[in-house]
Design a protein that fits this description.
Structural class: alpha/beta
Low-confidence stretches: 13-65, 631-643
Number of strands: 15
Helix content: 40-55%
Distance between the termini: 86 Å
Strand content: 5-15%
Shape: globular
Length: 643
């Protein structure tokens, strides 16, 4: 018989049974995220940054971007559920449970997605909370998943966010007849919502190249949504862009300096104040725990320990948080399973006097490079001319190019045994060597391998990464990859004809040119989209010379991997060539390095050092105390200036 109530699927429909299940889950959850004394980097009173982030090892994505995620239909037939469908079950849970508690628990489950070792502890508790026959089916589903991919995850980030979206859309706020959900109920909700999320359907015969469009776009969106980046690297990039590069003279004629444009866009809040406030919320989010009192799931909206001017705090919160009513309105009419733009825009929900971070990745983006770009972009679009907007887009590309070329200079010193003193070549030097010809943005000489780079600051548009529009994807591919590949093709022709004009010496007989496009905002790294790019290059005859390696498409995190490889005294050129000849040639370079070089390749040393200094500086600026607890005082208001 199908369930009459979602509680029929749990280990007992009596309140006592539910209470025991809930207590069991809380007991399991209590040890999930408690750093040992002294094991973290102290930032704020009662808040430590876990050692996990302080380690010199960036997070690594799964080898083939394949993860097995459990959904309701993996362990329960629709006919056995309330209303004979996962949708009906989800509606019944949401309509009967306290929405605020559901959101808190969904945020906690989302928090655990990036901590699979911790989340595994919930599997036992969830199994115990299920009705015995359902529990047996759940165990079998977990076993099948492990056989398919070696790893099965209890919940996914997409599922947790989709469940939160459903809670907002239900608009049950203010009702007095609602129950308090157990954590098992929230997991059941995520599984029910996740059961209907695939958008691979009959595509009406549309194709992208030779691949069915629906399959291609599901892979593209899934890869972009689940792309992982190292937290410290994101922070380091932001500091390099806004503290180092944005203060240099710009080629692009902006109406004001980049830092001035940013401050205007942030309502008068400077980068020096906005960034630390973001750090405050984010460091809270990465250590929170629903059980531990000193690591609560929510923060007080007044941020009482922060000494920053209240108007700056209010301005910051207005840009990163919103009420449940705002989310309900913004989600209305959105039908894509990948459309979480309201959460990306405002990753924090205001619940009474508290702040709940819904998604840690989107929060980090909001006060780092991506979010700051969009802050200026939207201000130029809404309050200034289209020319100002166009120039800001150009300037952002210039900043990203500077970010990459500065990093390439770091890896350009000759390797041990190198015979040549100069190994980095700028765009200007290549233009001088080949006047009137198209050249790359930068080049690095590794002797047998000559790395030639083109850099773009763009990223896939909403139509690609959210709506899954194949025409938008084709346009993105043309703009972000193929146009840059044409530039590299022309530059390679000049190099192959006369390399000595640039390098000053006759190249080795078997030298290989490695063409690299760096897409600042990322490009899909799934096998289908990458093989599609290869097919187009072959059809157009681009970069097909036998002396040229296959095109490498990389993101900013993979440029940082090149720096790490260089620091480890490994030849990046040789490894890039190996990548393009391996079974992982049509996935991201980071996957190849993770499998073939080291799963724990350290991030560049300067990245960790600068990121940790910035975290300490943020805490000191916000609290007025250094990290040892001493007050930081400026001159007394009535005291004479020091001589």
């Amino acid at each position: 018989m199908p369930a009459d109530n979602f509680k029929d699927l749990l280990s007992g429909s009596t309140e006592e049974g539910l209470r025991r299940s809930s207590e069991r889950l809380c007991a399991i959850g209590k040890g999930l995220w408690v750093p040992e004394e002294g094991s973290g980097h102290l930032l704020f009173p009662g808040l430590a940054l876990p050692r996990r982030l302080s380690a010199r090892s960036p997070s690594a994505a799964p080898i083939d971007y394949i993860e097995t995620l459990v959904t309701l239909d993996d362990y329960l037939e629709p006919s056995e559920t309330l209303g004979s469908s996962a949708k009906a079950l989800a509606r019944q849970i949401i309509s009967s449970q306290n929405p605020q508690t559901l959101l808190v628990q969904l945020a906690f489950l989302n928090h655990l997605v990036e901590r699979p070792g911790q989340a595994k502890r919930l599997v036992v508790g969830y199994t115990d909370a299920l009705r015995p026959d359902v529990a047996r089916s759940f165990d079998e589903a977990m076993r099948r998943g492990r056989e398919e991919s070696g790893e099965t995850h209890l919940v996914s980030r997409q599922g947790a966010l989709a469940a939160a979206r459903a809670v907002f859309e239900a608009e049950t706020w203010g009702r007095q007849d609602l129950e308090e959900p157990t954590l098992a109920t929230s997991i059941l909700l995520v599984h029910a919502v996740s059961a209907d999320m695939s958008e691979i359907r009959n595509g009406g015969g549309k194709f992208v190249g030779e691949i069915p469009a629906e399959l291609m776009m599901e892979m593209v969106r899934n890869g972009l949504f689940n792309e992982k980046d190292d937290y410290y690297s994101v922070i380091d990039r932001t500091l390099r862009v806004w503290e180092d590069l944005a203060v240099r003279p710009m080629r692009t004629p902006l109406r004001a300096a980049p830092r001035e444009l940013l401050e205007e866009a942030l309502g008068g809040v400077s980068f020096e104040d906005f960034f630390p406030l973001g750090i405050r919320l984010w460091t809270h989010a990465v250590v929170r725990d629903p059980v531990e009192g000193n690591k609560p799931m929510m923060l007080s909206a007044s941020l009482p320990e922060v000494v920053t001017d209240q108007k700056f705090v209010d301005e910051f919160l207005d840009r990163v948080s919103a009420t449940p009513e705002w989310f309900a309105s913004e989600f209305e009419g959105r039908d894509s399973d990948y459309d979480f733009l309201p959460v990306q825009t405002r990753p924090v929900v205001r619940l009474g006097d508290g702040l709940l971070v819904l998604d840690e990745t989107y929060l980090l983006q909001k006060f780092t490079t991506l979010g700051l770009f969009w802050a200026v972009h939207d201000n130029e679009r809404d309050h200034h001319t289209s020319r100002n907007l166009h120039r800001w887009n150009q300037a952002h590309g210039e900043l990203i190019e500077g970010l990459v070329t500065d990093q390439l200079r770091e890896i350009a010193s000759p390797l041990p045994g190198g015979a040549y003193s100069k190994s980095y070549f700028s765009e200007e030097e290549m233009k001088h060597a080949y006047p009137g010809k198209r050249v790359g943005d930068a080049a690095v000489d590794y002797g047998d391998y000559f790395l030639l780079f083109e850099v773009t600051g763009g990223r896939p548009v909403v139509g690609t990464r959210v709506a899954g529009n194949p025409e938008k994807f084709e346009k993105d591919t043309e703009k972000l990859v193929l146009e840059e590949a044409e530039q590299l093709h022309a530059a390679c022709e000049s190099l192959l004809a006369y390399q000595e004009r640039l390098t000053g010496y006759v190249p080795p007989v078997n030298r290989r040119i490695v063409p690299i496009v760096v897409v600042g905002g990322g490009y899909p790294s799934d096998a289908l989209s990458r093989s599609h790019v290869g097919d187009i290059l072959s059809q157009k005859g681009l970069l097909q010379d036998e002396a040229i390696e296959p095109l490498c498409v990389m993101d900013l995190s993979e440029v940082e991997i090149l720096e790490s490889l260089h620091e480890a005294r490994k030849n990046p050129g040789w490894l890039l060539a190996r990548w393009k000849r391996s079974g992982l040639r049509n996935t991201g370079f980071k996957n190849f390095v993770h499998r073939e070089v080291s799963p724990k390749l350290p991030r560049p040393a300067r990245t960790t050092d600068r990121a940790e200094r910035s975290l300490t500086a943020a805490a000191e600026r916000l609290t007025g105390h250094d990290t040892s607890g001493r007050a930081i005082h400026g001159p007394e208001p009535d005291s004479p200036p020091s001589s």
